[in-house]
Design goal:
Layout (H helix, E strand, L loop, with lengths): L6 H11 L8 H16 L2 H18 L4 E6 L2 H10 L12 E7 L2 H11 L13 E4 L12 E8 L5 E10 H17 L10 H18 L9 H14 L1 H17 L1 H11 E3 L12 E8 L4 E8 L4 H15 L4 E8 L5 H4 L8 H18 L5 H8 L2
Parallel strand pairs: 2-5, 6-8
Antiparallel strand pairs: 1-2, 1-9, 3-4, 4-5, 7-8, 7-9
Helix pairs in contact: 1-2, 2-11, 3-5, 6-7, 7-9, 8-9, 9-13
Length: 381
């Protein structure tokens, strides 16, 4: 089977998508989007193969692991091509991506170890394509592990698929930053945006890293989680300073109030995405207006690949003309898309819970008590 478009045509389409021409030449834009649609959906079969492997290995390490997959959005592809001027569309390694969210860092690394045994993740030079953002976080505070694999396509070749492994707490952080980007029209996810927001997320990332290294933290009830984090703060002066900076940001920006307001402003027109058929997808469309955002979900069976592709592309064309976010996603989460992609539902409840913890810890530490035992007795009497 031969590919419909050459590598040169695919790269040219990528160049067109970020050029000024497409703003005035609708036919050129439409053609570029058609080529992008073909190239993106040529990753669908390799992505499914990668997803099944990741799902099997992640749930073997953590029975409560949440796995999800997606094809990269036009807006994200264009932004990445603009940020990295030497990058070509045909060489972009995360057109197809899947993710495993695990309870602890230990289980993240256990999953990485078993995935590395698969031939799909070893390249011809014998090396792996791994970026460990847990040991060395990105400048914006992002943490997680990215692993690139090669999986067979329908044309006798292969496609690069990116696998992301992260803890639940790293996922809460990533969710919150995407919600803020969505509603404030910033680009904190690419380390842009307002300085106070960036400093806030860097600080919270450091605190969540401490939490991820507290033994059995995810198994504790809220009261004991708070107690363990308080104990860590009392023992670590650097953590106290980070908490103080985060609290200053919370007050200056009104972060908790804003996150709650974002959640209240989102109206879910339908909740079809709650249940997706096996191997199927949900097309998510979020429209942003001044006072309200609306979410609509359309579900496709696995046999409707072409229909999903066409609907995705048409929605993305529409999104270029108004404030709208479009995504085509799948997850095995019991709670459906909302559990795996809470950012699309403006759900930052778990993140806010940690901010409340941090506020209370800062308050108690500011009172100057040095005895951990007496402090706990006062809080939990």
């Amino acid at each position: 089977m031969l590919e419909k478009y050459s590598g040169k045509e695919i790269n040219r389409a990528g160049e067109m998508l970020i050029s000024e021409i497409v703003k005035v030449d609708e036919s050129s834009f439409s053609k570029a989007m058609d080529i992008l649609s073909f190239w993106r959906f040529s990753h669908e079969s390799p992505l499914e193969s990668a997803f099944k492997i990741v799902q099997d290995y992640a749930t073997e390490q953590d029975k409560n692991a949440i796995c999800a997959k997606r094809l990269k959005r036009h807006a994200s592809i264009s932004l990445k091509l603009k940020r990295f001027s030497s990058m070509k569309l045909k060489n972009m390694q995360d057109i197809g991506g899947c993710r495993a969210i695990l309870s602890t860092e230990k289980k993240v690394y256990q999953t990485l170890i078993v995935l590395k045994r698969r031939k799909e993740f070893r390249f011809n030079d014998g090396l792996f394509r791994i970026k460990d953002y847990i040991k060395k976080p990105k400048d914006d505070g992002y943490r997680g592990i990215h692993l690139i694999g090669k999986f067979n396509d329908l044309f006798g070749g292969s496609r690069s698929i990116e696998v992301q492994l992260r803890t639940k707490n790293q996922h809460y952080w990533a969710t919150a930053i995407e919600i803020v980007d969505l509603f404030t029209q910033q680009s904190l996810k690419t380390n842009q945006g307002r300085r106070e927001w960036k400093e806030f997320f860097i600080g919270v990332s450091e605190i969540l890293s401490v939490i991820d290294n507290i033994h059995m933290f995810d198994k504790l009830e809220d009261r004991l989680q708070f107690e363990k984090l308080l104990e860590a703060a009392i023992k670590k002066p650097d953590l106290q300073q980070t908490i103080s900076k985060v609290i200053d940001s919370c007050k200056n920006i009104g972060i908790i109030e804003k996150l709650n307001a974002f959640s209240r402003s989102l109206q879910v027109i339908n909740d079809n995405a709650a249940q997706i058929p096996a191997d199927g997808y949900a097309l998510i469309k979020i429209e942003i207006n001044k006072k309200v955002a609306t979410l609509n979900a359309q579900v496709f069976e696995s046999s409707q690949d072409q229909e999903a592709s066409d609907a995705f592309v048409e929605a993305e064309k529409e999104a270029t003309k108004k404030e709208m976010v479009v995504a085509l996603v799948f997850t095995d989460a019991i709670g459906g898309i909302k559990e795996a992609y809470p950012n699309y539902f403006a759900d930052s409840s778990q993140f806010i819970k940690y901010l409340v913890f941090i506020e209370e810890i800062h308050k108690r530490l500011s009172e100057g008590q040095s005895s951990f035992i007496s402090l706990l007795r006062r809080i939990f009497k």
